[in-house]
């Protein structure tokens, strides 16, 4: 975790030194709707979304009139609700928390509409004892939009799909739902405030 923070701080310092007028620093927060999936942006019927919060900081460096690079450091609450009717033993909420470092390309589509696309590297910081053999690291792809309301305030909506799996399902010999590979699937809706 210290390496992630130092990397963010180092990049922040370099950007400020090299391109002061093209750098924007911001804070963001919002609502996460999370579930487990078995594929890329594919939610299965066994799981329902659970609400949580996300919050963090963003650093944006404009490289061109229509393209910016963004670095984000976020805490994101994730998890799922298993709603299987046949085995009530597993029918419960599962809560996980990740510290995410995101690398995002920010495209200007129109004057008041931006497209975000990128990847995140996620470190598990809040474990759930009900999730067997959890993985501590995940890599996710994300896509979303940002709509500026004012020069310093924007709204955002995006979807994020993990590819590393939430647990080592090959080490688990119990029943559903953890006897197959599961990934994180998160929808986020929030606001970004630029200083």
Task: Write out key terms for the chains shown.
mainly beta, single chain, 195 residues
Task: Outline the structure in words.
By secondary structure, the chain is mainly beta. It is 9% helix and 61% strand. It contains 1 helix and 10 strands. It has one helix at 2-18; strands spanning 23-39, 42-43, 47-48, 50-62, 67-82, 93-110, 113-126, 137-150, 153-162, 183-194. It has an 8-stranded antiparallel barrel with strand order 1-4-5-6-7-8-9-10. Strand 8 and strand 9 form a beta hairpin. It is elongated and about 55 Å long. It starts with a helix and ends with a strand.
Report the C-alpha radius of gyration, rounded: 18 Å
Number of helical stretches of at least 4 residues: 1
Poorly predicted regions: none
Across the major sheet, the strand order is: 1-4-5-6-7-8-9-10
The total of beta strands comes to 10
Question: How much helix, percentage-wise, in residues?
Answer: under 10%
Q: Ends: how far apart?
A: 25 Å
Order of helices and strands: HEEEEEEEEEE
Structural class: mainly beta
Structure at a glance:
The chain is mainly beta. It contains 1 helix and 10 strands. An 8-stranded antiparallel β-barrel has the order 1-4-5-6-7-8-9-10.
List the helices and strands and how they pair.
Elements: H1 2-18, E1 23-39, E2 42-43, E3 47-48, E4 50-62, E5 67-82, E6 93-110, E7 113-126, E8 137-150, E9 153-162, E10 183-194
Antiparallel strand pairs: 1-2, 1-4, 1-10, 3-5, 4-5, 5-6, 6-7, 7-8, 8-9, 9-10
């Amino acid at each position: 975790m210290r390496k992630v923070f130092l990397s963010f701080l180092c990049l922040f310092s370099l950007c400020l030194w090299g391109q002061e007028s093209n750098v924007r620093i911001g804070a963001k927060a919002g609502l996460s709707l999370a579930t487990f999936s078995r594929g890329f942006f594919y939610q299965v019927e066994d799981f329902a979304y659970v609400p949580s919060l996300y919050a963090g900081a963003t650093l944006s460096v404009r490289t061109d009139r229509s393209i910016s690079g963004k670095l984000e450091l976020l805490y994101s609450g994730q998890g799922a609700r298993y709603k299987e009717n046949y085995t009530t033993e597993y029918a419960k909420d599962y809560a996980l928390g990740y510290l995410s470092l995101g690398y995002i390309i920010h495209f200007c589509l129109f004057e008041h509409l931006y497209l975000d696309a990128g990847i995140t590297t996620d470190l598990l910081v809040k474990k759930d004892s009900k999730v067997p053999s959890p993985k501590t690291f995940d890599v996710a792809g994300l896509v979303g939009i940002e709509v500026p309301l004012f020069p310093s305030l924007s709204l955002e909506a995006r979807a994020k799909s993990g590819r590393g799996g939430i647990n080592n399902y090959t080490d688990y010999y119990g029943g559903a739902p953890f006897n197959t590979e599961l990934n994180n699937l998160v929808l986020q809706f929030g606001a970004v405030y630029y200083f």
